[in-house]
Design goal:
Distance between the termini: 17 Å
CATH architecture of one domain: Sandwich
Number of strands: 27
Bound molecules: alpha-L-arabinofuranose
Helix content: 10-25%
Largest sheet: 8 strands, parallel, barrel
Structural class: alpha/beta
CATH topology of one domain: Immunoglobulin-like
Number of helices: 10
Strand order of the largest sheet: 2-5-8-9-10-11-12-13
CATH class of one domain: Mainly Beta
CATH superfamily of one domain: Golgi alpha-mannosidase II
Strand content: 25-35%
Shape: globular
């Protein structure tokens, strides 16, 4: 058996121009379980996410099932998409669910006032969404309208969705062609109540949340996981007010005699927005290295923000009965030239993929409190997984990060500790660590995720794997010659490829990461 210092190579030789990182991975110290719901998704009635993205209608020439686009469904099934949040977003607080049931030709239209001021014909409604979730094998996360709806409306929607007997709403559901109730685990109460969801203060929202929570009932075997709408970014005060004011409505205690209609989680939203102003967020595809690094500084802020909310929650809930949910995250750039500014359509480059990979590392490290995260948004909007145009379907670089990290779903997080210094880049006076990593174990396998943010230089990574490692590592990498590389219907330069030269000998894992790359390495633990 070699001692630690003998197993590791000496410090990098002065002749080497490749920066090096040395780290320790303890595979026998499993930590919190990484919920698969950290890989959740978000689909809003916004631009071409629902219409053209998921829904093409029953008369479409594209392959579909009941109007739902099958190429999109297949691509998302390959990610094991765990949940889908719907119908918004800001749209949720303008949405009246009864407008989206019954014969499509009889459904009333509405104006989608937040997103493009377009007329929404409600052809995609509750039944279509639940059918989509069934096709995807994903848990529905329904966001109820608190901003412009009523408590009764929300309560009846749950009854419509989840009640089995001959209650009024169950009968209405049957009349619309669905006999059995659906299972709806995730139930959100409002969205961004401080903004598009009603312009409320935290105290006013907390009052409403208590009221809505009281009437968000469990029917039969359906147990709601109720999520209170939370803060913007680092507004820890919002989280504190909810923790104080929801009081006995938080966690797993009973409030009314009818069920556990408490809140199980509090959400927050955080987007990677670079600026300099809201009207000039920068192009999704045209940026220089300085702007790339500024994006990464913004992206890595997520760690501090999660920790900030978690610290507040720890003070009120040391046993971590209440979950933290980041139900909107991702990059937000200027829309593509010539597209509707209200549709939030942006391309997706390798930069977006690296934003995703560093977010996931932070999520994994906070898996003891962060129980769910939802990328905004799944198709054709913001940091999309998939881009559709007519019959074409493009898998974005971000999609590949979700695919490569699938092994982390419901795995136990592992401590991954850098020894010594982490290489950095200086960005506007800030030191940005250019290496990010996380690891987990499940079913006798270890999965390590490694990101090299350096725009120009490769990175040698040497990991002292403690506690047992076995077998040949399987390594894959996502990169391209240019950070701005992106996939289109014509060209797909950003693809997953094998990462050559990765070794695992005497408990030491060695890999060289190309510049601006994301890699995963998996290997078996010692039998
Ligand atoms: O994802 C786009 C919008 O961003 C959502 O509708 C809203 O919740 C957030 O401000």
């Amino acid at each position: 058996m070699l001692l630690d210092d003998e197993r590791l190579a000496p410090d990098p030789t002065p002749t080497s121009t490749v920066p090096q990182v040395r780290a320790v991975l303890d595979v026998d110290l499993p930590g919190a379980s990484i919920s698969r719901h950290l890989y959740g998704h978000f689909a809003e009635h916004l631009g071409r996410c629902i219409y053209g993205g998921f829904w093409v209608g029953e008369d479409s020439d594209l392959p579909h099932e009941g109007g739902l686009r099958l190429d999109v469904v297949e691509a998302l099934r390959a990610l094991d998409i765990p949940n889908l949040r719907w119908p918004g977003g800001c749209f949720a607080d303008t949405y009246h669910w009864r407008d989206g049931i019954g014969p499509r030709e009889e459904r009333p239209a509405m104006v989608n006032s937040h997103w493009g001021d377009v007329v929404e014909d409600n052809s995609f409604g509750t039944h279509e969404f639940m059918a989509l979730c069934e096709l995807l094998g994903a848990d529905p996360y329904v966001s109820a309208n608190v901003g412009s709806g009523t408590v009764r409306e929300a309560a009846e929607w749950i009854e419509y969705l989840t009640r089995a007997d001959d209650s009024p709403m169950a009968r209405l559901r049957r009349a619309n062609g669905r006999d059995a109730p659906w299972s709806v685990p995730f139930w959100g109460l409002g969205n961004e109540p401080w903004g598009c969801g009603g312009g409320m203060g935290s105290g006013a929202y907390a009052e409403l949340a208590r009221q809505y929570g009281t009437y968000s009932l469990d029917h039969g075997d359906n147990h709601l996981y109720r999520i209170a709408a939370g803060a913007a970014d680092a507004d820890y005060r919002w989280t504190e007010v909810l923790m104080q004011n929801l009081g006995r409505y938080l966690g797993d205690g009973e409030v009314s005699g009818h069920g556990k209609n408490t809140y199980q989680a509090i959400s927050f939203h955080h987007y990677t927005i670079v600026g300099p102003t809201w009207d000039a967020k920068g192009s999704a595809t045209e940026f220089d290295d300085a702007e790339y690094y500024r994006t990464m500084v913004k992206a890595t802020e997520i760690e501090r923000i999660i920790a900030g909310h978690a610290n507040v929650m720890d003070a009120y809930d040391p046993d971590k009965r209440v979950g933290l949910v980041l139900d909107e995250w991702g990059t937000w750039f200027d829309v593509e030239p010539g597209t509707n500014p209200g549709f939030l359509f942006q391309q997706n480059t390798l930069r977006d993929a690296l934003v995703a990979s560093v977010h996931f590392d932070a999520f994994h490290r906070h898996a003891d409190r962060l129980v769910m995260a939802n990328i905004a948004q799944t198709v054709n909007v913001l940091q999309a997984m998939l881009l559709t145009d007519g019959n074409s379907l493009v898998l974005t670089p971000s999609y590949h990060v979700f695919a490569m990290n699938k092994g982390h779903h419901d795995a136990a997080s592992l401590p991954f500790t850098v020894r010594g210094t982490t290489p950095t880049a200086t960005v506007d006076g800030t030191e940005l660590p250019t290496f990010s990593a996380s690891a987990s174990t499940k079913d006798g396998q270890v999965l390590v995720s490694l990101t090299n943010l350096d725009a120009e230089r490769p990175l040698d990574v040497e990991v002292d794997v403690r506690g047992g490692a076995n077998g040949t590592p399987v390594a894959r990498v996502l990169t391209a010659p240019e950070i701005s590389a992106h996939n289109t219907a014509e060209q797909t330069p950003v693809q997953v490829r094998p990462l050559e030269g990765v070794t695992l000998r005497d408990g030491v894992l060695r890999a060289q990461l190309p510049p601006h790359s994301f890699a995963t390495v998996s290997f078996a633990t010692q039998a």
